[in-house]
Automatic annotation (TrEMBL):
Assigned keywords, A-Z: ATP-binding, Ligase, Magnesium, Metal-binding, Nucleotide-binding, Tricarboxylic acid cycle
Protein name according to UniProt: Succinate--CoA ligase [ADP-forming] subunit beta
Primary enzyme class: ligase
GO molecular function terms attached to this record: ATP binding; magnesium ion binding; malate-CoA ligase activity; succinate-CoA ligase (ADP-forming) activity; succinate-CoA ligase (GDP-forming) activity
Amino acid sequence: MNIHEYQAKALLASYGAPVSDGRAVLKAEDAKTAAGEMDGPLWVVKAQIHAGGRGKGKFKEADAGDAGGVRLTKSAVEAAEEAKKMLGRTLVTHQTGPAGKQVNRIYIEDGSGIETEMYLALLVDRQTSRIGFVVSTEGGMDIEEVAEKTPEKILNFTVDPATGYQAYHGRRVAFALGLEGQQVKQCVKLMGQLYKAFTEKDMEMLEINPLIITDEGSLKVLDAKVAFDGNAVYRHADIAALRDETEEDPKELAASKFDLNYIALDGEIGCMVNGAGLAMATMDIIKLYGAEPANFLDVGGGATKEKVTEAFKIITSDPQVKGILVNIFGGIMRCDVIAEGVVAAVKDVGLQVPLVVRLEGTNVEEGKAIINNSDVDVIAADDLKDGAEKIVKAVKG
Ligand code: GDP
Ligand code: MN
C-alpha cells in the first residue's frame, strides 16, 4: 500500500526525522491560507500523487503551465496561484504511464535552501531476508540511471535482525555520503529513526530522494516515498487510515473489497480462475495462442456465487476486455457453484463479449448441466488448451 509524500513526512516526523513545515490542501481556496501560514522566502508547491518523478513531469492541460509537479515560488500568493493551476489537472511522469494521474491534493511546503542532494532508501532485501540500506551521493535523480551508469556511487548493505540498527550502520551511511562533524551525529540518529519507523510500521520500501544538506548545514528529508506491506496493514489502524482510494485502480480496489486476488493488465482476454498457479498457467496459455490477458484473477478456493458475480462485474467493467475465459478446477470449490455464479453473473451484468468456460473436477457434470440448461451464451471447453484456443478464436476470428 502506498501513501502520499505529505503523509510519509508526517509519519517520519513522528519518529523525530527532520522535515519542512507544510500543509496539504484539496482546494485552491485553502492554498492561500496554508501558504500564508509559512514565512518564506521560498514556498514549494508539490502535486500529491502516488508516483515519483513529479518535478520532471508534464501536465496534459496547457492551463496548468509548463512547469512540472514541483514548483518553487517566492510568495504565498504565487504559491496559491501555482496550486490552483495544478489542482484537478493531469500530471504525467515516467512512473504514471502515458495516461498520467489526476492531481487532487497539493502540498505546500516551507522551501529549503539546498547545498547537497543525496539518495537514501530502506527496503526488504529478499535475498538475505533483511532490511537493506541503499545510499548514494547522487540524489535528486533517477537511482536506476545511477545504478546503470555509475554503480560504484551506490552503497548497499543490510542490517542483521539479531542486532538491529546500530550506530556503526549510521556511520557507514555518513561515510558513504561524505558527511562531517555534526552531520555524522545527525545521520546516525536519523538512520535509527528511519529504521525504527520501517520495522515498526511494516514498510516494504522507504525512499528519500533527495535527502539534503541544507544551506545551514543540517540533514533534512526533502522527499519521501513509502510503501507498506499490504499483508501487514491490518496490524496498523493508523496506516490503514492513510489509504487514498482515489489513487488506486478502481477494479483492483473493488476486488480487494471482495477478497479477490485481482491485478489489472493491458490485454484483451479477461480471465477468472481458481488458484494462483492455475491463473498463471491460464495467462501463459492465452499468450501461447497469440492473445494477451486483461488481468490476473484468482477467485480463491472457497468462492461463493456472490464472489463469482463480483469477479465477473470487475472483469466486464474493463473496456479493453473482448472475451472472457473461465477456467475452474473444482477441488474444494464445486463446479456447480461456479456454474451457478457464472450464469447469475452473465444475467446480472448482461455480457457483451464471448465467454468460454472450462470446468473440471468436483461436481463437473452438475456444473456443465447448469450451464447447458441455462439460456446464456457460453462456449464450453474440454480442457485448458481447448479453452484458450476457443477464446482466442472467438476474439480474433
Ligand atoms: P519528485 O520529482 O517527485 O521526486 O519530487 P521531489 O520532492 O524530489 O522534488 C524534486 C526536486 O525539486 C528536488 O530534487 C529538488 O531539487 C527540488 N525541490 C524540492 N523541494 C525543494 C525545496 O524546498 N527547495 C529547493 N530549493 N528545491 C526543492
Ligand atoms: Mn524525489
